[in-house]
Amino acid sequence: MRVLNYLELESRLDRSGIGTAADQQRAALRTTDVDVVTSPWKGDSPVAAAEYALRGRGGFSAYDVAHCNLIGPGTVAVARHAKRTGTPLVLHAHVTREDFAESFRGSTYVSRPLGRYLRWFYSQADLVLCPSEYTKRVLESYPVDAPIRPMTNGVDLDSLAGFEGLRDEYRTRFGLEGMVVFAVGNVFERKGLSTFCELAQETDYDFAWFGPYDTGPHASSVVRYWVQNPPENVTFTGWVDDKRGAFAAGDVYLFPTKNENQGIAVLEAMACGKACVLRDIPVFEEFYTDGEDCLKCDTHGEFRAALRRLNEDPALRRRLGENARETAREHSLDRVGERLVEAYTDVRESGR
User: Fold this and answer.
1) Which of 44, 125, 144, 305 is the most buried (most CB within 10 A)?
2) Are 65 and 4 in contact (CB under 8 A)?
3) Whole-prediction pTM
4) What parts of the chain have a pLDDT lower than 70?
5) Rounded distance, CA 161 to CA 25, Å?
6) Taking every pair of C-alpha atoms in the chain, what is the biggest distance, in angstroms?
7) Sign of dihedral through CA atoms 140, 142, 148, 149?
8) Backbone angles phi, psi at 163, to 5 degrees
9) Cβ within 8 Å of residue 125, ≥6 positions away
């Protein structure tokens, strides 16, 4: 089976969760017999494809299933081509109206019309894949008129191998000591930036957020404020070339996010055996268990208490981390590969 796994604007999304998810799909599919192509265009670009089309040779490459990971005009073109040619179309719902809000300047205002667009867009699919049962319920509420199947994004365990050896280097580089409370990923208010910084102000631990941030016109005022006026014990590292260094340097993964479809970085932290403190939101109910592989919190007081417990009780930190590692193994990429092949086979055999 030849499958298109397409991520529009791929070069601009290499530092995003969507980019990571697409990379992991491709890594998962390498463990299967599926032949993967990553560009729908003949000549590997829309410009080259247009030249092919003008010569009457068609602008699209040949594939048996189209699997798309974004929602832009290039993906719409792929979707329309799939409908014209009867090619099974799988759309991956990484973007929802709810998780788009509070991501960058103006995103909250755009989220409402975005929801109407997403209802139309995802309804074109023969199958919509999404990272969680929670996301499925969100899409059904729009409502999306297409079959929806939850499927974990997974975690690339191989990409984290050897992280332990980077601990001293990264702690020294960023001046981190003691129990380090950390986050990994793009700096957005939706991911709990204000809570992260306010907890730092209320405690004595070193806090580090490993990931890129924008202070330009696209940045929200909240992001600009915190990265330009961080508490004394908070370090915003910006982009780091080796994510393993982030997971090596940190001790407690703090993720007070307001909305997620899954949260790949949580699984990566768990795969590294880190104790995780999470906001108690619906999506985490299906993946993680409070007191077993993480601590879940609702209020500032609960977050502070959780960090204090983990600082005072190293045995609890170790136990949560060991259990978290087992949880992460349940999301290994070989399992993701099997489920992707199953999805592709189903849409080819059943149609819509």
Assistant:
1) 125
2) yes
3) 0.91
4) 15, 57, 101-109, 111, 351-352
5) 19
6) 71
7) negative
8) -60, -30
9) 79, 89, 90, 91, 146, 147
